[in-house]
Amino acid sequence: xxxxxxxxxxxxxxxxxxxxxxxxxxxxxxxxxxxxxxxxxxxxxxxxxxxxxxxxxxxxxxxxxxxxxxxxxxxxxxxxxxxxxxxxxxxxxxxxxxxxxxxxxxxxxxxxxxxxxxxxxxxxxxxxxxxxxxxxxxxxxxxxxxxxxxxxxxxxxxxxxxxxxxxxxxxxxxxxxxxxxxxxxxxxxxxxxxxxxxxxxxxxxxxxxxxxxxxxxxxxxxxxxxxxxxxxxxxxxxxxxxxxxxxxxxxxxxxxxxxxxxxxxxxxxxxxxxxxxxxxxxxxxxxxxxxxxxxxxxxxxxxxxxxxxxxxxxxxx
Length: 317
Known about the structure:
The longest helix is centred in the C-terminal third of the chain and has 23 residues, at 288-310. With 317 residues, this protein is an alpha/beta fold. The chain has seven helices and 17 strands. The protein has helices at 14-23, 57-67, 123-126, 159-169, 184-196, 247-251, 288-310; strands at residues 3-10, 30-34, 74-78, 81-86, 92-96, 101-109, 113-116, 131-132, 145-151, 173-179, 201-204, 208-213, 220-224, 229-232, 235-236, 240-243, 275-277. 41% of the residues are buried.
C-alpha cells in the first residue's frame, strides 16, 4: 500500500530542499524523494551562495536535510522516481525504482536538468576540471592566466552568446581564443564582430579532434585536426541541457520553447493543477540562488492550495 502524504517533492537538490524548508513551517506531512543525481554532483565547491562560498555542495545538501529533523514532518527517501501520475481521485502517485509508491495531495517537481555534452572525444573527462559552464561558479581561481579558451558550440554557437561568454573569460585571462570547431560561418561572424569592435580575442575555426586535461590546475589541451594543439588555462562552454527524466511528459505538463516546464508566478504551478515545479527544470536560469528562490515559491504555493481546499474555499492563486 502506498504511503500517504500531503505533499510529494521529487528531487533533493537546492530547489527541492528549499521547497521542503518552506513547507515545514506550515506542518504539512511531506516526503522528499531524492535520486542522488545532481547537476553539480561532480563539483566540490559552491559559489555565489551567501554564507556557503567555496563549500562542498554535498555538505550543503546534508546541512539542509539536518534542518528538517526538529520539525518531524519531512520524510526523506533516497530513491529514483520512475513514474508519476494524477489519479482519478485527484491525488498524485509516484513510484520508485524500488517498486515503492507514495501518494500525495500535491506534487512538486524539482528534478533538474542534465547536460548534453558535444561529441568531442575527451570532453566528459575534462568536465568541471578544465571545462567551465558558468564563470560565476568556476574560473575565478584561474585569474591572471595568459590565455583561456571558449568553445562556440551548441548553446554558445552564435556570435552574440560566444562573445558574451568570452568577455567573462577575459576577467580571468589576458586573452581568449574562440574555438568554433569547424563552423566556418560562425568563425566569420566572430571575426567580423571583432573587427568592428576589437577585444583581446582570437578566432580558431579548425575542427577539434580531442580534449585532454593537462596536469596543471584547470589547464586543458585542445587538439586540432591539422595535428597542432594548444593548452589553455581553462575552456569555457555551456553545453545544451535537457530535462532529467520523463516525469513532466508523463504528467502531460506544458513546456516552454526552451524545453523547461512552464510555470505560473508567483507560486510556480504548472499547467496541471496541483503540480508545481522548481529549480532548473522550471527556468533557464540554472543557478543555485534561482533554484532556492523557485523552491520557496513552490513550497509556499502547495500548502496554500491544500489549506484552501480543506475548507472548500478559494485559494489566493
